Amino acid sequence: MTHHASCHCGAVEFTVDLSDGFNTARRCDCSFCRRRGAIAVSAPLDGIKITKGVDNLTLYTWGTGAAKHYFCKTCGIYTHHQRRSNPHEYGVNVACLYGVNPRDLGDVPWVDGVNHPKDR
Ligand SMILES: [Zn+2]
């Protein structure tokens, strides 16, 4: 199933084919994600297609620079990131998907971002 998605202002639109539906939904408590606060779901690298506004995305990296976090330049909303723990996957902001209310996902498990697998 292909999901349609956008940032908040609509400058960036994209489609998403998830790796395993919403079964991969998680939160993370690393220093970055705890501030961002979004729930992420996994998609393969070829599972995201930016259909509008690719030039309106900006990139944030920190620490090792392995994870690549993309945001809309205009509204600041995080759309997706290339994962550090699995560079063959993107994490997608579940709240960007049309028709999905993150509240409906119930209790979403936490990833131990403080003790990141790549830091052990
Ligand atoms: Zn935007």
Write the topology of this structure:
Blueprint: E1 2-6, E2 13-17, E3 27-28, H1 33-36, E4 40-44, E5 48-52, E6 57-60, E7 68-72, E8 78-82, E9 89-93, E10 110-111
Parallel strand pairs: 3-10
Antiparallel strand pairs: 1-2, 2-5, 4-9, 6-7, 7-8, 8-9
Bound molecules: zinc ion.
**Order of strands across the main sheet:** 4-9-8-7-6
Q: Catalogue the ligands.
A: zinc ion
Write down the secondary-structure element order.
Answer: EEEHEEEEEEE
- The beta-strand count equals 10
Helix content: under 10%
Structural classification:
mainly beta
CATH class: Mainly Beta
Short descriptors:
120 residues; mainly beta; Metal Binding Protein, Guanine Nucleotide Exchange Factor, Chain A; five-stranded antiparallel β-sheet; three-stranded antiparallel β-sheet; 3% helix; binds zinc ion
What can you tell me about this protein's structure?
The chain has 120 residues and is mainly β. It has one domain (2-101): Metal Binding Protein, Guanine Nucleotide Exchange Factor, Chain A, CATH 2.170.150.70. It is built from one helix and ten strands. The chain has one helix at 33-36, and strands at residues 2-6, 13-17, 27-28, 40-44, 48-52, 57-60, 68-72, 78-82, 89-93, 110-111. A hairpin with a 6-residue loop joins strand 8 and strand 9. The protein is globular and about 40 Å long. Bound molecules: zinc ion.
Q: What can be said about this structure in brief?
A:
This protein has 120 residues and is mainly β.
